[in-house]
Design goal:
This protein is α/β, with parallel strands linked by helices. It folds into two domains: 301 residues, Aminopeptidase (3-Layer(aba) Sandwich), CATH 3.40.630; 171 residues, Glucose Oxidase, domain 1 (3-Layer(bba) Sandwich), CATH 3.50.30. 30% of the residues lie in helices and 23% in strands. It has 15 helices and 28 strands. Strands 5, 6, 14, 15, 18, 19, 22, 23, 26, 27 and 28 form an eleven-stranded mixed β-sheet that branches. Strands 8-7-17-10-11-12-16-9-13 form a nine-stranded mixed β-sheet, with helices on one face. Strands 1-3 form a two-stranded antiparallel sheet. α1 crosses α11, α3 packs across α14 and α4 runs parallel beside α9. The protein is elongated and about 80 Å long. The two termini are 31 Å apart.
């Protein structure tokens, strides 16, 4: 997730709103400012057909999907990766099974499929030209690239440079070193990996690391090497940055300083332990070639449920979630896979489940519903921004985006969030009252989180659609949960009965929006929405 906005709705009393809905009389949402346009909240009844759709949404089905999407087999679904490709194929298979209309890329026969493909390149290390050799006079150690983490794309050559041991924790010893003692040598040290600590300690760990690196860099060493005792495998060579040829820019995963390299080799750790602090014994030779560009095929997965109205079927309600996560890292207690079950496997399987259920409607909503899972959210909203630049259906015909993220876990750091849900940017369109009403019908309290609603608006894929002028929100249950971006975000920790209930609430809200002749609108009375309003008007020629 990612910005800030203000403005509030005057909430319509939930009991009154529910009674109006059940009577089929409808209600009108009012802005607290009183000057912004309001949408006619649609009259809605849970007909037997609609009720049957809701009952198709099941905890068991969601569990089944997520146990695969967040399995170790998919290796954390990094963008790009084999695991991400497997996830894409799985999602496409579920869209095909549900009978959604394929609206993605066409094959050589002109037949459309379920993928919207972005052809990018990734910068990867040149393994064939890598050489790292250490010698202490008694032995020579050749370290393979698989036991190295070097996050720079620059070439680097160090020839038989002397070694000097510097204790990361000994600030006084570091302060006593002079540039003439260190310049041109290779500094060996052991920098703790703060990412293995509790997330609350990350900021402190990062600050300490950056302070140390700054002081060492000022001494002008040829190279700094940090030893890792915990893992025997590294992240390899190069930053693995994505390059979008269309934008001519690098995306995501920035690199560390060019002269900083981590070694995950027990032999080098043993050599390090034998050295005395400050002692310059032994030599190191390193050859790293510049990263090379390799093609990367990235895919959004899309499927359409066509609407029933002759005119309104050419307008679209978009349902999204990102199906990527952050891949793998240094193992802790044997686990190095960031499975991303809640972030955002839970949103991904919800898109699948909603598509499968709503596709069984005998009486389709007036508007079409486009289901899409996107790549690269964790690397900067890449897939949703790509869709914004290359919409399959016109942006001016896209009336709303409902983005789903963090919808499976209820163990928020603030406490239990069962039977609740919240929207980011709750107050700057008139979508909020629709979800509140849907919650009343399904037993879910939909509310505005006063601290996080606005600040999290720009932290997920809804932002990319909002930038295009589409009224867009992210719906979530737990903003921050204990394993957020951690190795412990496993599928077993999801509250599946609650996820079932949340999905049923979202299904009702989607049917309400897709069946309403009025489109959701931005709150123009709120100055914080002005950029989105301008984008919306530009798209519509207003």
């Amino acid at each position: 997730m990612r910005s800030q906005f203000v403005a509030r709705y005057a909430a319509v009393g939930s009991a009154l709103l529910l009674s109006l809905f059940l009577l089929g009389l409808g209600a009108r949402a009012a802005w607290s400012q009183g000057t912004a346009p309001a949408q006619n909240t649609p009259a809605f009844k849970l007909t037997p057909d609609r009720q049957a759709v809701l009952e198709r949404i099941s905890a068991a089905s969601l569990r089944g999907h997520l146990s695969f999407i967040a399995s170790d087999l998919l290796e954390g679904r990094a963008t790009p990766s084999r695991g991400l490709d497997i996830a894409a194929e799985y999602i496409a298979a579920q869209f095909r099974r549900a009978g959604l209309e394929p609206v993605g890329d066409a094959n050589e026969k002109g037949e459309k499929g379920y993928f919207q493909t972005a052809n990018w390149v990734t910068l990867e290390g040149d393994l064939d030209k890598f050489d790292l050799t250490l010698s202490d006079g008694a032995q020579t150690i050749s370290v393979p690239a698989a036991q190295v983490s070097y996050a720079s794309d620059q070439a680097l050559t160090v020839e038989r440079a002397a070694l000097i041991k510097v204790d990361f924790k000994d600030a006084a010893a570091l302060a006593a070193l002079k540039a003439e003692q260190v310049a041109g040598k290779v500094v060996l040290t052991e920098i703790p990996d703060f990412r293995r600590e509790e997330r609350a300690k990350w900021a402190e760990g990062m600050r300490a690391q950056n302070e140390f690196l700054g002081k060492v860099k000022a001494l002008n060493p040829a190279l700094l090497i940090s030893l890792d005792r915990t893992s025997t495998s590294g992240r390899g060579l190069g930053s693995k940055r994505l390059v979008d040829p269309e934008l001519k820019s690098n995306q995501g995963m920035g690199g560390q300083a060019a002269q900083f390299l981590t070694v995950h080799d027990p032999r080098v750790v043993k050599l390090y332990d034998a050295l005395k602090p400050g002692e310059a014994v032994g030599t190191l030779t390193l050859h790293v070639a510049a990263s090379v560009e390799k093609p990367a095929k990235l895919r959004n997965v899309v499927g359409l449920l066509p609407g029933s109205d002759p005119v309104l079927k050419d307008t679209y309600v978009l349902v999204t979630a990102h199906y990527d996560h952050i891949g793998t890292g240094a193992p802790v207690n044997g686990d190095g896979i960031f499975n991303g079950a809640n972030d955002d496997g839970s949103g991904t399987v919800s898109v699948i489940e909603l598509a499968s259920a709503l596709a069984t409607l005998k009486e389709r909503p007036k508007r079409s519903i486009l289901f899409m899972t996107v790549f690269g959210e964790e690397r900067g909203l890449l897939g949703s921004r790509y869709y914004g630049r290359h919409p399959i259906f016109p942006i001016e015909k896209t009336v709303a985006d409902v983005n789903l993220e963090h919808v499976g876990r209820t163990d928020d750091v603030e406490g239990d969030k069962a039977n609740t849900a919240t929207l980011t940017g709750f107050d700057f369109t008139d979508v909020g009252p629709i979800f509140k009403a849907a919650g009343e019908l399904t037993g879910v309290k939909v509310y505005k989180h006063e601290q996080n609603s606005d600040s999290f608006f720009g932290r997920s894929d809804n932002q990319a659609l909002a930038d295009q002028g589409v009224p867009a929100h992210t719906l979530c249950v737990a903003f921050i949960f204990p394993d957020y971006h951690g190795l412990g975000d496993h599928w077993e920790k999801v509250n599946y009965p609650n996820l079932e209930k949340t999905n049923r609430m979202v299904a009702v809200a989607l049917m309400m929006m897709a069946d309403n002749t009025d489109e959701p609108k931005w709150n123009e009375a709120n100055p914080k929405t002005s950029r989105y309003v301008q984008a919306w008007k530009a798209r519509r020629g207003k």
